[in-house]
Amino acid sequence: MFDAAVKADPASSEAYCYRGKLALDDAQGMADLARAIELRPDYADAYYERGLKYDLANNSAAALADYNKAVQLNPKFVEAYRTRAMLYLLSGKGEAAIADYTKIVELKPGGESYYMRGNSYLELGQDPKAIIDLTKSIELDPTYYWAYMQRAKAYRHLNRFKLAQADEAKAAQIGPPKID
Question: From CA 81, how far away is CA 65, in angstroms rounded?
Fold first, then answer.
């Protein structure tokens, strides 16, 4: 389908981006994404997609450069912030991850956003901050199983066992999310 789009309009950065995103051949996908960026240097989605491919290839430096470019070009690109934050967290740059998750909370202040930042605080050993964000996540979505489970973990770290048990009981009542 996208082969036809590229043939029909070889100047279409969107066609190259989508074909590159969906390419099973990594080299072809990277070439298409590079072509999309060449045709349209301000194409944040193309940088993001190429960053994902670099990330999957364990080229964190190149992935980070493309995620940085994506958010520079589109400061409201929630997925780029989320992916960059995960990369930061995995590479030991916790404060940078928290900064990105904070930006996500500003852009999309829902239960999932607070959960992600709260979970990051938990990973960094900042249990009181984790509890604040996980509580906000639960306030915004009282059925969010994982927010209860992670808040219980933070409570356990702080030796607040009754609160941890209450969260675990609530999570058990809700049940884990179903995977389709």
Answer: 12
Provide the pLDDT for residue 5. 74
Q: What is the pTM of this model?
A: 0.91
DSSP result, 38-50: HH-TT-HHHHHHH
| Together in a domain, 6 and 85 | yes
Q: List, for residues 70-79, the tens digit of each pLDDT value.
A: 999 999 999 9
Are the C-beta atoms of 70 and 50 separated by less than 8 Å?
Answer: no
Q: Count how many Cα atoms sit within 13 Å of the Cα of residue 148 in the half-sphere of its side chain.
A: 18
* Range of the structural domain that residue 138 is part of: 109-180
Residue 129, token pair as written in the block: 């901050």
Domain shared by 5 and 79, yes or no = yes
List the CATH number of the domain containing 169: 1.25.40.10
